[in-house]
Amino acid sequence: MRKDGKRVWIIAACIAMLYVVTMLLTRSGGSVTNQYEQYAQWRSAYVMQESDHRSFVNTSNDRKHPVALSEGQGYGMYLTAIAGIKGWGRQQDYDELLNYYLTYRVDGVRVDGADGNTKSYLMQWRQHSNGHQWISQDSSATDGDLYIAYSLNLASKAWPKSSDQYMKLERKLASDILNYEYNGTTHTLTVGNWADATSKYHDLMRTSDVMPTFFKSFYESTHDRRWLEITDAMLDRLMDLSEDHDTGLVPDFAWVSEHDATAAKANAVASRYDGDYSSNACRVPMMLATSNDPRARAVVLRLLQFFNRQSAVTAGYTLAGKQLNDYRLNSFTAPVAYAASQHREHRYDRLQKDWQNVLVQPVETNRYYDATLTVMAVMGEVD
């Protein structure tokens, strides 16, 4: 009996240890094997060479007719830098993505007032091939610039010998985000350099641009207190939007003032879903998941409570909680499931099942956006 009892205790202890290890892996992201495999699959499917020393993330799902976006370039640089920190991302791969970004920068304005243009450190938001050469559009998208800047900070940690170079570039890009993509009245970021003070879109905010972890990094690198003001203002406006509906859902875009925010109407800037929880707002849970700010935590917990009550996370919702579509997309599921994995103490049991599915499924090779957000979730946040 004593031997049997001892055996039971040993088995119980092993099960308990296995449970603890599983929970740790689940909370921090996927297992190292899952992370490596999904990153490698994603890179093989979406990263293409423009030249011997430049590469880009193809967002078109068609390798014969590729399209590069600053958003995709930022995601690619971010993932590659995280892979570098984990020990299996190559610096050469990062630098080729970096070289592409540096080649396709937006024209800037000379601060000395002299004739002639100079290049800013913002990335031109879109490039495509006309069959003979790359055609690029000389305006920016703030979300891409934010990811590129934060990736440079991560790259400085991944490859310390090049830290000075990466940090110098991060500071220059962070400075130009403030020069060209900042609304000094509302203390919020605009959606791009084209939404300047003369534009009717100057007071438009993209909710997925609320990135408190990134903003903290930029403040620590630049010591520019405007990043603290941006953090406060954008989180306050996101809280306003979250509290407007019992669901806690926030829209893709909102009009902001110094003290309030209002969801955009349909077709205000990008699509009929501009005022819904759609393809931009779906990133919000992931962008807030690891923030220690109580406002970020309040917004993400309200979102998780809503989604945990649903039978499945489907592709978009009105702010009142009505499904826009009855099908599922990983660009909606993965960010929510990742956020739930960071708040396990609240026991979002249904969402934890989604997270387990996200960890083990193969990377989609013909859905750039879904695949990219999935791999970002699986790779996890790097502190």
TrEMBL record:
Domain of life of the native organism: Bacteria
Q: Which UniProt keywords apply?
A: Glycosidase, Hydrolase, Membrane, Transmembrane, Transmembrane helix
- GO BP annotations listed: carbohydrate metabolic process
Name the Pfam families on file: Glyco_hydro_8
Q: Which Gene3D superfamilies match?
A: 1.50.10.10
Q: What sections of the protein cross the membrane?
A: 7-25
Q: Which SUPFAM superfamilies match?
A: Six-hairpin glycosidases
Q: Does Transmembrane count among this protein's keywords?
A: yes
Give the Gene Ontology MF terms in alphabetical order.
hydrolase activity, hydrolyzing O-glycosyl compounds
The Swiss-Prot or TrEMBL record describes its family as follows: Belongs to the glycosyl hydrolase 8 (cellulase D) family.
Q: What is this protein called?
A: Glycosyl hydrolase family 8
Which organism does this sequence originate in?
Bifidobacterium aquikefiricola
Taxonomic path: Bacteria, Bacillati, Actinomycetota, Actinomycetes, Bifidobacteriales
